[in-house]
Write a structure and sequence with these properties.
The complex is a heterodimer of chains A (227) and B (414). Chain A has 227 residues and is α/β, with parallel strands linked by helices. Chain A contains eight helices and eleven strands. A six-stranded mixed β-sheet of chain A has the order 2-6-1-5-3-4, with helices on both faces. In chain A, strands 9-8-11 form a three-stranded antiparallel β-sheet. Chain A has a two-stranded antiparallel ribbon with strand order 7-10. In chain A, a hairpin with a 5-residue loop joins β8 and β9. The termini of chain A are far apart. Chain B has a single domain, classed as Beta Barrel (Porin). Chain B is built from two helices and 17 strands. Chain B has 414 residues and is mainly β. The chains are: A alpha/beta (227), B mainly beta (414). Chains A and B meet through α4 of A and β2, β3, β4, β5 and β6 of B.
Chain lengths: 227, 414
């Protein structure tokens, strides 16, 4: 009984930590933002306007999406404060001259469209939003996690039948990286399922730098029958 | 004046449904426009307070407003300015001033610079003390943030360097500000009003102000602690009527500080809807008055203030709060005029302290408009060279030891 309870608690803790990272929101950025990943602390300080650049020096400007379902989840998961508190924080900046109000939009579609066309823009949308013209930043619990680098990559085997028929394309895979750097899960997000299967088989053999906790990232793999 | 108050009150009510930040584009740059206004009413049962005649039916001479414009010029560079005006009893008197106006360049998260007229960072709320809508209380603890003496700390004409950097081992973040500049008090400020009771009528008051602030956002979520220091070298010119020879007319008086420093320590903890703040400030001042090159009065003051405040948001739009604030002063004078200013050494006397127990309720009518109802239960009146709200000009019959006050206040912002 005790063991079952402990297992349940452990599962909740583990699942909880993964949920925070995977979350109900995605952090998106204009393609001019060089970084592929960002730490949760960076997200917080960018949206609190405590910093206007990422650790690689890229300038960023936060965009709020107050009308969408992502807003409440974003406040809870990343800023840990209410909307009223956040507005008070911005008013403090505005009325002491220490900063300007961030851009405020009202839906995922508006945020994606604005971020896509605005250099340095960084925003958040619900996990189901269409992401045309923007990049998704992976979020780690710490800067170390956010900066986890791929240190061993295995190329996927091109399925012979598809290669013979000159069928290619790009597949997107969500990768869950364990603390020790090994890939513990890979799931197809988009693309040809047969190519995806090959991609997942390869990705499962990849190795990243170790981190403090499991993190997730998205990778895109191109299958070009011409090469 | 009554018409102005009435007009502002009508505007406060009328604007409630349509207050949004405004802006326009100027040379391809978006300029943001924001503003705020507040109107208060104070009634006391005994002593008149805050330079108002509050003890009869009360006073509504408690109005302020401000408006600012800011623009992001480049990724790291922004400029802005804010106009501020207030009428608090005998203070302010509807003379608008530049509240702040500066250029700000941020090189990196750990290094930025500001130049111009800059709000002074001192403790938790010095730079936001006018922004009623940010605080649960209608009046911040007066032991630390005396609203009648706001000019003494509010801003400096000069520059800041600032930044924040993470500490190793996830110990949190440290934010710092260092500043140097020139403080300039309005002749309608509290300090000038204080001096007028002693027959000193200032034509200028100000001087060098420099200091710094260091605050640590600890790894315990919601907890920050910090320390501020401010040093000043002030001078003033005034016309003085010698009480020993009142028929002799005005004498030109020069005043300068020999010592003037402030230390402030503070902590804040926010947990969900609960907020707890506490601060301690010590202000030491040694000011010499000179006539024709001779010191006629040298006054040393030692002011100590502290408070503990708590507030809790019981429902989305209603916050209840309370604080206990303690202020005390000791003073010693030397010079030919010293016999006219008896030393104050016993802080247990009502003349040398104010202990203020406060309860408040804030109701947010919407995101932009709130009203507050607040009760103050004060022991002491702190009548000295650095007063805390009680002035003999409004209390010619003398002071009573206890004063209760009802404060009503409403403010909006956009």
């Amino acid at each position: 009984m005790k063991i079952r309870l402990l297992a349940l608690v452990a599962a909740v803790v583990m699942f909880g930590s993964v949920r925070v990272l995977a979350g109900n929101v995605k952090i998106i950025a204009n393609p001019s933002v060089r970084a592929e990943s960002i730490s949760a602390a960076e997200v917080k300080s960018v949206f609190l306007k405590e910093r206007n650049s990422l650790r690689d020096g890229t300038h960023v400007e936060p965009v709020l999406a107050t009308g969408g379902s992502a807003h409440a989840a974003f406040l809870k998961e990343y800023l840990a404060q209410s909307d009223d508190s956040l507005q008070d924080h911005y008013r403090t900046l505005v009325f002491t001259g220490k900063g300007l109000m961030p851009k405020v939009l009202h839906s995922d579609e508006e945020v994606v469209a604005y971020v896509a066309k605005t250099r340095g823009a960084i925003g958040y949308v619900s996990s189901t939003a269409a992401l045309d013209g923007v990049k998704t930043l992976t979020v780690g619990q710490s800067e170390n996690d956010a900066a986890r680098k791929l240190i061993s990559r295995v190329e996927p085997e091109y399925p012979v039948i598809l290669l013979g028929n000159h069928i290619g394309g790009t597949v997107r895979v969500r990768v869950t990286i364990a603390s020790n750097g090994e890939v513990e899960d890979a799931r197809l997000l988009g693309g040809n399922p047969v190519l995806g299967e090959a991609a997942i088989a390869a990705v499962m053999k990849w190795v990243y730098t170790p981190g403090h906790a499991p993190t997730q990232t998205e990778v895109s793999i191109v299958f070009d029958p011409g090469h | 004046m009554l018409r102005r108050v009435l007009l502002l009150s009508i505007c406060l009510c009328a604007a409630r449904t349509s207050v949004h930040a405004q802006g326009f584009t100027f040379f391809d740059r978006q300029v943001q426009i924001h503003g705020f206004a507040s109107q208060g009413f104070v009634h006391t049962n005994e002593n008149n307070w805050l330079t108002m005649n509050t003890s009869n039916v009360g006073s509504g001479e408690f109005t302020d407003f401000g408006a600012n414009a800011s623009a992001q010029i480049t990724d790291n560079f922004h400029v802005g300015a804010q106009i501020y005006d207030r009428n608090l009893g005998q203070l302010g008197r509807w003379h608008p001033s530049l509240d702040w106006g500066f250029a700000d360049y941020r090189f990196a998260p750990w290094l930025g610079v500001r130049g111009g007229k800059v709000k002074t960072t001192l403790g938790l709320f010095n730079d936001t003390q006018d922004l009623d809508f940010l605080h649960p209380f209608a009046l911040l603890p007066q032991s630390i943030y005396p609203t009648d003496l706001r000019d003494t700390t509010i801003a400096h004409l000069g520059g800041d360097i600032y930044g924040s950097l993470p500490l190793p081992r996830s110990l949190g973040d440290v934010a710092y500000t260092a500043y140097v500049g020139h403080r300039s008090d309005s002749i309608h400020s509290g300090i000038a009003y204080v001096a007028s009771q002693y027959n000193f009528h200032y034509s200028s008051y100000g001087g060098l102000q420099y200091g710094g602030d260091l605050r640590w956002k600890t790894r315990l979520k919601g907890l920050q602690i910090g320390v501020s220091r401010m040093d000043q070298d002030l001078s003033a010119t005034a016309k003085f009527i010698n009480p020993l020879n009142p028929d002799g007319g005005f004498i030109l008086d020069n005043e300068h500080s020999k010592t003037d420093w402030t230390n402030q320590f503070y902590g804040e903890y926010i947990l969900g809807k609960l907020r707890i703040d506490s601060e301690y400030r010590r202000f030491v001042n040694d000011q010499a008055e000179e006539v024709a090159g001779s010191v006629i009065l040298d006054t040393k003051s030692d002011v100590r203030g502290c408070y503990v405040a708590g507030s809790y948001r019981i429902v989305k739009r209603i916050t209840l709060g309370s604080y206990y604030s303690r202020y005390s002063i000791t003073r010693a004078s030397t010079g030919p005029l010293a016999p006219l200013f008896p030393d104050q050494t016993d802080t247990s006397l009502p003349a040398n302290h104010i202990y203020d127990k406060v309860i408040t309720a804030r109701v947010g009518l919407n995101k932009f408009w709130n009203i507050k109802v607040e009760g103050h239960f004060m022991n002491g009146y702190g009548d000295s060279t650095y007063p805390d709200g009680f002035y003999p000009q409004q209390n010619p019959q003398g002071f009573r030891p206890n004063t209760n006050a009802l404060v009503l206040k409403s403010s909006l912002n956009f």
